Amino acid sequence: MAQISGKDFSRAVEIGRPPNVVKLFPNSQALIVSGKVVDRAMMAKGKAMTIAANGRNYFVIRGALAAAQKANSAIIIEIAKSEGGANAYCAVNYWNIARQVDAACNELGITVPVAIHADHYGIKSDKDIEAAKVEIPTLFEAGITSIAIDASHLPDAQNLLANIALNPFVPKWAGLETEVGEIKGKAGLSTVEEALFLIQGLNANDIFPDWIALNNGTTHGIEASDQGIQVELTAEIHESLASYHLSGAQHGTSGNSSERLRAIAAKTRTTKANVATALQMLSWGLEVNDFGNAQLDEQGNFIKVTDAGVTEEMWPAMVAYADEQGWKGGNYKKLNLPFENKLLGQPVEIRERMCKRVEDFVYTLLTDVFNAADTAPLAIETILQAGSYDLGHKVGRIEDPAQWTEEKIIERGATIVSDKGPEGDFDD
Ligand SMILES: [Zn+2]
Questions:
Q1: Interval 213-226 mean pLDDT
Q2: Fewer Cβ neighbours under 10 Å: the N or C end of the chain?
Q3: pLDDT recorded at residue 427
Q4: Which CATH number does the domain 6-386 belong to among 3.30.1360.120, 3.20.20.70, 1.20.120.450, 3.40.50.1100?
Q5: 252: CA distance to ligand 1 center in Å?
Q6: pTM (two decimals)
C-alpha cells in the first residue's frame, strides 16, 4: 500500500485546503480539498471511481471516512438539497456537513483527502435561480468544496441557461458537476445530443465542469427493477464528450450489481459514484443484499438485523413514528431528521456498530468494486505538483461564444428531440 509521508501530508494540509476551509478550520489537520482533487486522483489511477457518500446521518459520515482511510482512498462526502437544504429531511445539512467531517477527521486521524460536495443543488424554476444566487455563496462560506448544479428538471435550453446564470457564484477552484436528464430509471434516458448541447454551451461560456451526471437507467433509493445502469449508453455519451475532458458522476448506485459497477469504473469515465440509501439502511441495522438494496419481508417491511445498527428498542420506535406519518418504503428516509438526536443518544457501543457496518460496506466497495484503493497518495501528489488548492480546469474554451448567445441557445435547444420521461418526484 503506497504510504503518504508525514512531510507530504503536512505540506498538502498547508497548501491544499481551499480558502473557505482554511478560514473555518485554521488549526485543523483534516485534508479537506476541492472536488477537483478527488476527480484528478481517480483519473491518475485510471478506471477508478470513488464513493460520494451521502451523509444522511452522522454515523454514515464516520463510517465512510474510516473506510476511505483503511482503503487509502480519496473520498467525497455529500448531501443533496432534498436531504440537507432549506427543506431538509436530514439533520446533516449543507451548512453543518463540513464541520462534522472536519471534526471526525481530526478525531479519527483521517489523512486521506476528502471533498465535501453539495449534491443535486436542484433548480426547478426562475425563482429557484434567484434564491440560489443568495444561497450558493453561503454553502461555500460553510465549507462546501464542490457542487452539482442540477437544472435537469428544466428543458435543455433552460438547463444550460441556469448553469450559466449560477456559475459566477461557484468558486473557480471548486469541483463542479452538471446534470442532463433527471435520474428517473428507464424513462427519459439521456442522449449524446442532449449532453453535447449542455457541455458545448457551457464551454462556449467559459464554464468547464469536472463531472456530468446522466440519466443512464438508475433510480434514487431502493432499486425496483434490475435494469439498472446502462453501461454502453454511458460509455458512448462519455466518449462523445472526450474533448471536453468530462468525468462521469454515477447516481442511484445503491442496488446495482458489483459486476455492473465494476464495468462503469472500467469502461466509462466515471470517477464518482453517489451512494445514499444503502448507507442509511446499513447504519440503521437493516438487512441489505450485497448491492446495498434493503430487503423486505412478506409484509413489505424492512428487516431489522438483531445486534446490528440501532438498538432493538429504537427500531420499533422508528417504525411506529413512520406509521404515524404514513411513511412507507423509500419515505423512511424522512426519519433521519426526527431521529438523529435520539440515535446520537444511544450508548457508545451502539453508535460504533452503526458506523462499523457502514465502514465495512464502503471499504468493500472502494477496494473490491470501484478500484479506488491507494488513490489518496495520487490526490496529494496532484496538490503538491500544482503547488496549490486550485488545480485549474481540465480544458479551455473550444466553442465559439458567438454561436452560444442566449438567443442561439433557446433556438438550438428547441431543435433537440428528447424524451424527458414522466413528471414526478425522483429526488434523492
Ligand atoms: Zn442523485
A1: 72
A2: N
A3: 66
A4: 3.20.20.70
A5: 6
A6: 0.96
